[in-house]
Structure formats: structure tokens, C-alpha cells
Amino acid sequence: MNLLPRPVSYVDGGRLCEYRGWETVLVDGPPGGYRLISSDDGVLIEAHDAEGEMNALQTLRQLLGPQAFRAAGEKPSVIPACEVVDHPRFAWRGVMLDVARHFLPKREVLRYVELLSAHKLNVLHLHLTDDQGWRFECKRYPKLTEVGSWREDSRFGDRRSGGMTGRPHGGFYPQEDLREIVEYARARHITVVPEIDVPGHSQAAIAAYPELGVHGGGVWTDWGINERVLNTEESTVDFYRNVFDELMDVFPAEFIGLGGDEAPGHDGEIVRAIAKHLVRNGRRPYGWDEVLDSGPLPAGTVVASWRGVEGGVTALREGHDVVMCPEEFVYLDYRQSDSPGEPIPVGTVTTLEDVYAWEPVPAEVTGDEPGRLLGAQANIWTEHLDSARRVDYAAFPRLAAFAEVVWSPAEKDPGFVERLREHHLPRLDALGVEYRPLTGPHPWQLLPGVPGFPR
Questions:
Q1: Which position among 46, 51, 53, 262 bears the catalytic label?
Q2: What is the pLDDT of residues 196-210, one digit of tens each?
Q3: Which residues carry out catalysis (predicted)?
Q4: Which domain holds residue 36?
Q5: What is the CATH number of the domain that holds 60?
């Protein structure tokens, strides 16, 4: 229930009540669930847990109207008389934010934490390292940020065009900033899952410490798959064990991302080694679906199924827990229409309606598999999103549709787009989100002349 209540029970007597605050009591019920009653006597929230109370408060905020989403100004004082009974469909309702390709300052990450909370999303997956930049301060290996956190140039649009921006790009998060992000998210019942990618997507680390790689080279200035991957020396494994130790010290999350994707010709040895290291330290490895090709994985490994749903189905049958994030439905950097004016058109057309129509549970999943389908996440890759404004354009309002999918029952509401237009876009306006209008981009959101690679 993210845009307008579609609860188990909803009674509205057509009355408005004066809003004077709320009272919360804890009751039995599904995790994250709540019951909200608004009447002349005030607002009563019955919640299963603290996350359920937070979800109820976001519903209360929605009922108060768009003005309640502004940081300052006169606040609404009335609320409809109603009863809302609701709970999330999935436990993992996540967003992957790629801060490696284009760095987002801490203030923007905190803003996205707020936006996730407003949409009742509860996992922020931070993609912290890639060929194009290393964003995690590792105190034991300072050159990872001194050398690896910036690149001399960036591809402008798709690599086939040969264009470059002609300017450096970089940035990294000190550990204290990351601890702040974690705590800020924790207060909003959002888990921050960090990812350091191995053995591929590692050129920034190899640029800083060449002994880690099969080949040398600087921080990559291009997009796409880089065939330069980590070597399999024990010293390289030890190096990354030390890096992940610092990562685990900063991020208390149960889940720690280790990548495992798009590593041509690699046998997966380092993936298995790091996964075992994480398990020994009481954490659960979280990797892209290529980790299934790395050989036997330790119990507790979670698989993110991005190359369609097949990897996720296989993982469930092998006993692994799974998060669904197939590129054809929830890669929010993909173009939003087939119009040639769509700014930097990459990937397949993925419309708002496509995202909302998606069903996260594949038809071939029976529920009897030894693994569990934890939920789903939307992925925001930033090769072509070089600012917070561009991230907003790509993410919204499709992320609102995704939030509705992972919260609500499987049945689709034919009135979704109208609810979005009438009730939720005004909230995004109040929050200052520079979303893509339903009718197409504003003139200033266009990027004419920047070549993409539509599929």
C-alpha cells in the first residue's frame, strides 16, 4: 500500500477528523503489518513491530495530503475518518543504487533513504565499487581511494559512439559518512546492503594495486564488460578478506554483497573464498546470479536474479534464498519509451505500465522449493545517469510502481495510473523529485545528440 490505501479493510464515513497525533500499541500480526484507525478520538496504530509502526506513519502521511511531504510550511490538520489494515507482501523490498559509475554525494544518498521510506521500501543496496570507481574508504589500503576513486574521463553516451566527456569524475565515502547513512536508514527501518564486486568489475582496485589483476591498467573510463579481472593468487584473496572485514565493521547488515557477475573466463575461486569468509563472520553472501556458476556456495548465500528469472528459479531449487530483479522489468536505467527523444536510450523499453504489470513470483515457482523467494529489488545503474537529477528522471515514477508491486497483493488494480496521477505525483512534487512526466520528458530533461544503445 504505497500510493493510496488498498487495504484488507477500509471504511470511510466521509468525515474529516482533526489530527492531533497518534498512539501506537504492539499487537500480533504479520511482520511490518499494522492497523490504523482515524476517528474523532484521534489516531490509533496497532502494529506488529517497529517497522509496522513506521509503515503506518507513512500511510498517515499519505492521508494528510501532499503538504505533509514538504520539509517546512503549514501542515495539514485534518485526516479522513478511516480504518486501514495492511501489511507487505514481501520481506525484501529493495533498490540497488549504483554510486560507483557516477558518484552521488552523501546528501543525495540520504535523500534516497527518505524516498525509499516514503514508498515503504526497506532495503538499500549500495553498489560501492566497479571498474570506473572505488567509493568505500578502506583504511588498510588507502590507495583504493587515493587512486581508485576517480577517473580521468568518462564515456559520453554509448561506447560505440566513441564520445568522451573530457572531464575527470570521482568521489568516495569516508567510513564515518557510511556509518551515518547506515544509522539514518536504520532509524527508518531500512537495511543498507553494501556491495564490493569480485572478481570482475574490479579495474579501479587493480589500478590502485596492480598486483591484484591479471592485467594492469588505470581506472576505466568506458562502460560495458571489462575483461580485466582479479587474479586467483592467495594474496589477492587475503587482500579482499581484509577489505571485507572493514566493510563488515561499517555495515552491520546480515547481507553483504560480493558481486560475482560478468567476469569473463574466471573460475569463481575468489567468489567462493569470500563467500565462506562472510559466513564465518556471521554474515550472508549476496551475489548476482552468476555466482551459481562459481561452484558449491555456502549455506545462506542469497542470489539476485538479474538475467531474467531462470537463475532465481535454479537457485531456489538448489536451496538458496532469492531476490528477483530481472533486467527486462526492473532495470530503471533502461529507456522509458521508444521515442527517439528519450534521453540516452539504452536497453529495452520499460514503461511505467511494464513495471506495474510485473509479477515477482515466476509461474514455475511452486512454493515447495527448499529456497525462499525473499522479494525483489529495482536496480538503478548510473553509467548514463551522471547527476541526482538524472537519477530522479530514471527512477520516478517507475519506482513508485515497483513499490506498489512488492507491497500489494498480486492482483493488479486497473486504476493504478489514475491513482498515481491524482494522488502520488503531487507528493513527489512536494518532495522535490524531478520525475519523468507521464506524457514524456520536459524539454530540459532531453539530452539531444547523446547516442544510446536501444534494444
A1: 262
A2: 999 999 999 999 999
A3: 262
A4: 9-86
A5: 3.30.379.10
Q: Which residue shows C-alpha cell 532531453? A: 446
Instruction: Report pLDDT digits (tens) over 433-455.
Output: 999 999 999 999 999 989 999 99
Residue where a domain terminates, one of 32, 62, 86: 86
Shared-domain flag, residues 39 and 108: no
For residues 385 and 431, membership in a common domain is answered with yes
**Number of Cβ atoms within 10 Å of the Cβ of 418:** 10
Residue 346: closest CA among 245, 447, 202: 447
Active site residue 269: no
Residues 97 and 78 in one domain: no
Indicate if 251 and 319 belong to the same structural domain: yes
Cα 121 to Cα 375: distance, rounded to the nearest angstrom: 11
417 occurs within a structural domain: no
Give the closest residue to 295 by CA, choosing from 271, 277, 279, 319. Answer: 271
Q: How far is CA 1 from the centre of its chain?
A: 19
Are residues 86 and 113 in contact, defined by beta-carbon separation less than 8 angstroms?
no
Q: How far is CA 115 from CA 184, 305, 399, in A?
A: 12, 24, 10
Same domain, 283 and 303: yes
Pairwise CA distance, residues 93 & 32, whole Å: 12
Distance of alpha carbon 338 from alpha carbon 207, whole angstroms: 38
pTM, full prediction: 0.96
- What is the CATH number for 431? 3.20.20.80
Are residues 212 and 349 located together in one domain of the fold? yes
CA distance 86 to 304: 27
Rounded distance between C-alpha atoms, residue 95 and residue 114, angstroms: 13
User: How confident is the model over 373-429, as pLDDT tens digits?
Assistant: 999 999 999 999 999 999 999 999 999 999 999 999 999 999 999 999 999 999 999
Contact criterion met (CB below 8 Å) for 424 and 416: no
pLDDT recorded at residue 10 = 47
**Which residues does 26 contact at the CB level (< 8 Å), separation at least 6?**
46, 47, 48, 49
Among 23, 55, 86, residue at a domain's last position: 86
For residue 320, give the C-alpha cell.
538458496
Number of domains in the chain: 2
What residues does 198 pair with on adjacent strands? Answer: 259
